[in-house]
Design brief:
Shape: elongated
CATH class of the largest domain: Alpha Beta
Radius of gyration: 34 Å
Number of helices: 21
Helix content: 40-55%
Number of strands: 21
CATH superfamily of the largest domain: EAL domain
Largest sheet: 8 strands, mixed, barrel
Distance between the termini: 89 Å
Structural class: alpha/beta
Strand order of the largest sheet: 13-14-16-17-18-19-20-21
């Protein structure tokens, strides 16, 4: 090595580096320590914030290239090399990329001396630490990075074949119960099951964690993919059996034809195949899901709507409006309360149904910040209306997500106390389904709110989750009968008698009952015969904004 520095000039070494660089993924370099010159493989200019790969005044130029927090460590090492205090360079630090984001690299090199024994060249190689490997030694498969190279050969003949993505169900549980080493053993075993099930011309890759991708460009059909999935699942079952059922698990799959991929790029294939596998897992696992464009469009719609909801909440709840629907005393026909109902409009002007956006708010947890906003607005509405009707009350819907994941009791206490509203004026509704799924948590919230003086209502009673025991357990102040139940009672004698008995039972417990969904005068008269306490429905008024409500129902001008 020392002879290299003595017999070859800096320019010659640069030329040698450039010749070898075309055969490498990494970036070889030479640093002339005596003449203060630096040369790096020209490929590096495509990745890092380098205008030139040959430069002088090295420390100044490297200072511009190296991530600021890492410079002192590198500078200290370089000075030690220049002074001859050390012979080897081996550091991990960050260079700035073309997009001005830091990229972790490992730089290794060896000092070559001149004929007088003084440090002359630092010769070495730079490689990215975080770059994903092409092959995986655990599964024995190529990694997904290799897919990009394969795809280029099929862009002109993309219509044929299929893509099948496998995933081990609940693989995390295997790692947690048996350890990472056994998890790797399972990965290797499942990978072999897939590889042994392939037909000639099919390719398999490990894409991420416990997921694998099979690509068939040999005119394979969906039926062929289904058969491959069955072969793999059978092989996995035999593998589990051969291990005396030490760990029992299943495998899911999502399949799509090449025709389903409009743009045959690596990112698009990864995105759509991930959706297909997620659908299989979401539908119960241990099954194969066949990609349908309609399902994917719904998924994209949901994702776009979630993004709109996040932006709206971050932007001060722009796009959200709170509407109010009157609740009327059945005996007096007078306004008793209003129910606060959330509405949402996207930036393009489209009004979105609550049936579509509220489940997304709940799944994402965004119901928590929007719930606070609803509480504040509803209390403000109630105080406004009490200027005309002192006994006026407002009802808000509470999601079981708010109960499970937020300090909802403290929030209600604080808002009510700060506003000066009497707790009795607030009604909190929870759908019966939410109560039945979270009995201990909801019961605790209910008990504390009732002690505080807030009224409690079971919403949508009679919608499929009905359980009379829930009324006894919760002892709410109000039971609300769903519109669907109301329609049946109006059309069917048996259902009418059933509603009558429910109303009698609720009254026997000294509770109030509200019948929802009354839309005509005829319906009103029939329901009044059953003696409910309150009635709600389009007959009295559709949900409307605060200004319209107080003017229409209270004769007030804001």
């Amino acid at each position: 090595m020392e002879r290299l520095s003595q017999h070859y000039s800096f320019d010659t070494i640069c030329e040698i580096i450039q010749q070898f660089a075309s055969c490498m993924d990494d970036y070889p370099f030479v640093y002339d320590l005596q003449e203060d010159r630096y040369f790096l493989s020209e490929l590096a200019s495509e990745r890092f914030a380098l205008e030139q790969t040959l430069f002088s005044d090295v420390e100044t130029r490297l200072m511009e290239l190296v991530y600021p927090d890492d410079w002192e460590t590198l500078a200290k090492d370089l000075r030690a090399l220049q002074k001859g205090e050390k012979q080897d360079h081996n550091l991990s630090y960050r260079w700035m990329g073309k997009d001005h984001r830091p990229i972790w690299i490992n730089c290794r090199g060896r000092v070559l001396k001149d004929e007088n024994g003084r440090p002359k060249y630092l010769l070495g190689c730079i490689n990215e630490i975080g770059i994903k490997p092409i092959a995986d030694n655990v599964s024995g498969m190529l990694e997904s990075r290799a897919i990009q190279d394969v795809l280029t050969g099929y862009y002109d003949n993309w219509e044929n074949g299929y893509i099948l993505r496998f995933g081990i169900d609940d693989f995390k549980d295997i790692n947690e119960k048996f350890g990472m080493e056994y998890g790797d053993y399972v990965l290797h075993g499942v990978a072999n099951c897939i590889l042994d099930s392939l037909l000639p011309g099919q390719r398999a890759y490990r894409v991420v964690a416990d997921e694998f991708l099979v690509m068939d460009f040999m005119y394979g059909s969906i039926e062929d993919a289904q058969e491959l999935y069955r072969r793999v699942r059978t092989a996995v079952d035999k593998f589990i059996e051969s291990n005396q059922y030490e760990a029992v698990y299943t495998i899911s799959g999502g399949v799509l034809t090449c025709m389903d991929v409009i743009e045959p790029t690596y990112s698009e294939i990864m995105k759509i195949s991930q959706f297909a596998l997620s659908e299989a897992k979401g539908r119960g696992k241990n099954q194969l899901y066949i990609f349908h464009t309609e399902d994917y469009q719904k998924f994209l719609r949901k994702r776009a709507l979630l993004r709109e909801l996040r932006l709206s909440i971050a932007g001060g709840f722009e796009g959200f409006r709170l509407f109010f629907q009157p609740i009327v005393s059945a005996s007096k026909g007078e306004i008793y309360a209003s129910e606060a109902l959330l509405r949402f409009q996207m930036r393009n002007g489209e009004s979105v149904s609550p049936m579509e956006f509220i489940p997304i708010l709940e799944e994402s947890g965004l119901i928590i910040p929007i719930g606070k906003w609803i509480l504040e607005k509803a209390i403000d509405m109630c105080i406004t209306c009490q200027a005309k009707l002192p006994d006026f009350r407002v009802s808000i819907n509470l999601s079981y997500i708010q109960i499970l994941k937020s300090p909802i009791i403290d929030e209600i206490y604080q808002h009510v106390i700060d506003s000066g509203l009497h707790p009795y004026s607030l009604i909190v509704e929870l759908t019966e389904s939410g109560y039945l799924e979270n009995t201990p948590s909801v019961k605790r919230v209910w008990d504390n709110l009732k002690k505080f003086g807030v009224s409690i209502a079971i919403d949508d009673f009679g919608t499929g989750y009905s359980n009379l025991q829930s009324i006894g357990n919760m002892m709410p102040n109000i039971v609300k009968l769903d519109r669907g139940f109301t329609v049946k009672a109006l059309q069917n004698r048996y259902e009418n008698q059933l509603m009558s008995h429910i109303i009698e039972m609720v009254h026997s417990l000294d509770l109030k009952i509200c019948v929802e969904g009354i839309e005509t005068k005829e319906e009103l008269e029939k329901i009044r015969e059953l003696s409910p306490d309150y009635i709600q429905g389009f007959y009295f008024g559709r949900p409307c904004a605060k200004e319209e409500f107080v003017e229409k129902f209270l004769g007030m001008n804001l």
